[in-house]
Write a structure and sequence with these properties.
Blueprint: H1 3-9, E1 19-23, H2 32-40, E2 43-47, H3 51-67, E3 76-81, H4 91-96, E4 98-101, H5 104-107, H6 113-116, H7 122-140
Parallel strand pairs: 1-3, 1-4, 2-3
Length: 148
């Protein structure tokens, strides 16, 4: 597993909290390896796009089970916020949840974040993120040049 994925997963220690809020404007948590690592640890990721829909699912499938001492579909739930304004979330979530902020700028401090572009489309950003990750892996583990 690459160091940047381990760095992300280290933000989510098992058994620390049942409800998490992840401010993730760059969709870092949607990387397949990150999602797989979270699921292996007992976390499930749920997007926060509509507060009413999220609350209905959270209350019905997770909170009610946890309050009764029963098993929920996952040990912990990550509210995935595709932005940075955590303060806009309902007060009871903020009170109960452990908060994590993730961004490419934090993971790759030498990245020129402005040039990466917050104005590009999400599809372009996802493709660029994949290329960035591949280049970062090469930078972390450079291949020796063959002498010919």
């Amino acid at each position: 597993m690459s160091p940047w994925i381990e760095r992300i997963l280290k933000e989510f220690p098992a058994d620390l909290s049942r409800l998490w809020i992840a401010a993730d404007p760059d969709d870092v948590l949607l990387d397949e390896q990150v999602l797989s690592g979270l699921r292996e640890r007992g976390f499930e990721l749920m997007p926060f796009e509509d507060s009413v829909a999220f609350r209905a699912e959270y209350e019905d499938r997770y909170r009610s089970a946890w309050d009764r001492g029963k098993a929920a579909p996952a040990k912990a739930l990550v509210l995935h916020l595709r932005g940075i304004n955590i303060s806009d979330l309902p007060w009871d979530y903020l009170r109960q949840a452990r908060r994590v902020s993730l961004s490419l700028a934090n993971l790759f401090p030498k990245l020129s974040y402005r040039s990466f572009g917050r104005s590009v489309s999400n599809t372009t950003r996802r493709c660029s993120r994949r290329r960035l990750i591949l280049h970062h892996r090469r930078w972390e583990n450079p291949q020796p040049k063959s002498s010919s």
